[in-house]
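Notes to self after the Tuesday call (sharing in case useful).
The group wants a holo model before anyone commits to mutagenesis around the pocket. I volunteered. Ligand is zinc ion. Logging inputs and output together so the record is complete.
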Amino acid sequence: MNTGELLSIMTARVATLEKMPTGIPTITQQDVLGAMGMINHPCASLLLRVKYAHQFDFMDDLEHCIMIYIEKLWRDNHWPRYRGSMLKLCEFLLWEHIWPRRCVSCGGIGEKTVETGKVYQCGSCKGTGVRKIHDKDRASVLEIPYTTFRRKWSPIYQELLASMDRIEAIGRGALRKRLEVEC
Ligand SMILES: [Zn+2]
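Result:
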């Protein structure tokens, strides 16, 4: 069983492994949560909680944590000064990391409601709610002209996305180690 599967256990809040098919080690949701509490990287633990356990109550804490992390990364790499909202950048970065294929136009619902209350199928994703995120979307959300985003910020944004993956990997690695020790 990999950490992704373990984490998915937590998304089914009431499900315990006793109710699952036989042959699976008796690790409970409690074990996973306990091990997660011991991950030595605050962002990693929060990220796993939000992304896999859908504990969205931790979203504000996660955004705050990621913002501090990114500001440090920014300084360490001597990237050019970003004049936009760093919070907005962090919010979208997290959104993209957690839901990489969710349609930006409709938020993954597949439809849009206009002011009159009428509901239309989302043209961006043709009603599927799924669509790859492009630099055009990023520029638009961050309110930066597309050409500027492409030239100046796109490479940095890709670095930031990669750093999200690294944080997740730290969390998964630590969790796997903890559970191996305990179980
Ligand atoms: Zn859509």
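Two things stood out.
The radius of gyration is 19 Å.
DSSP finds seven helices and two strands in the chain.
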